[in-house]
Amino acid sequence: MALPISTSTIELDRTGLTPRALIDPFARAITYLRVSVTDRCDFRCVYCMSEHMSFLPKADLLSLEELDRLCSAFVAKGVTKLRLTGGEPLVRRGIMTLVSSLSRHLKSGALNELTLTTNGSQLDKYAAELKGHGVERINVSMDTLDADKFRAITRWGDLAKVMAGIDAAQAAGLKIKINAVALKGVNDDEIAPMMEWAHGRGMDMTVIEVMPLGDVGEARLDQYLPLSMVRAKLADRYTLEDIDYRTGGPARYVHVKETGGRLGFITPMTHNFCETCNRVRITCTGTMYMCLGQDDAADLRTPLRASESDDLIHAALDEAITRKPKGHDFVIDRRRQKPALSRHMSVTGG
Ligand code: SAM
Ligand code: SF4
């Protein structure tokens, strides 16, 4: 189900009639929150993590109750779409308690969508419960259909387990979008077959450009495949029709005439996708990043813990949003082999 941002709400917010809204200095209304509920994961994808990661001490994590309170404060400030991510959100202990409590905002109508991005490894266990709590669509990340290659990319992953998760999610009635990171020399030739497979199962698919986040022990230039090249190659075999379909995120979609399915492109590197940015991120320790690609951050844990009232959190959000930058400055080229940011994607939440 497409969940467009309600333009009427934005217009009202811009006129100041609803003081709840988070509007940044570039008049972008922030209606989408991504929450990294844990920095831990049961995979070690080569573009996301190094093989030997050190994770945050568990004592530093916000409790599930605190995460709920923080998310709810954002909802009170006009956020209508909430995505749980990580790390792997489904490895956070008690995660269904959080999903269950957040689902009250779906019931009240304050949230349009509660969703998650997952590597799929635990989906067979949780799919039915997610659906029961009002989750309608999920993103499953998968970069290949080849079991050996899957193991090589994820270092620890088991493709059969993820496939079982996808089966369970579809059986439970969840709509799935497959997210694949385009990796030079790794899955270039698989984008078309994966798309055919996804569309054949009634799933959308999105391809993503690799971003220079965190030291992963490999040169980014070796991984980076511009999506302009992926698209040009697909266009040799398929009829790609640009469509206006939006899911509230950064993907731009085409309708593929031959498969009848939708293919999205997320192009942080070749196209600046920042102009229409409507999102912010919080980490599992309560740090808010106003931009995935910048270091500036706001501490929300202190105001969260300082008072039982949410006034301090709301004030911190109002202040932080005035610092949301226009966009990121990612560059991957021969001179810049270093990560643009030292922070890994799994910390900020992809
Ligand atoms: N573990 C979950 C998963 O893999 O779906 C959620 C977190 S993961 C960080 C979210 C998304 O970010 C995944 O689709 C992953 O492929 C993508 N990702 C991770 N590191 C990335 C990078 N450096 N550049 C682009 N996408 C990346
Ligand atoms: Fe884990 Fe997702 Fe990062 Fe892969 S992309 S290591 S599954 S957080």
Measured between the Cα atoms of the first and last residue, the distance is 21 Å
Bound molecules: S-adenosylmethionine, iron/sulfur cluster
Q: Identify low-pLDDT runs.
A: 1-19
Number of strands: 12
CATH homologous superfamily label:
Aldolase class I
Order of helices and strands: HEHEHHEHEHHEHEHHEEEEEEHHH
At the first level of CATH, the class is: Alpha Beta
Alpha carbon gyration radius? 19 Å
Q: Could you name the CATH topology?
A: TIM Barrel
- The helix-and-strand class reads alpha/beta
Largest sheet: 12 strands, mixed
Integer count of domains: 1
Total count of helical runs of at least 4 residues: 13
Q: How would you state the average pLDDT, rounded?
A: 88
Task: Tell me the strand percentage band.
Answer: 15-25%
Condensed summary:
The protein has 350 residues and is α/β, with parallel strands linked by helices. Helix content is 32%, strand content 17%. Strand 5 (175-182), helix 8 (191-200) and strand 6 form a beta-alpha-beta unit.
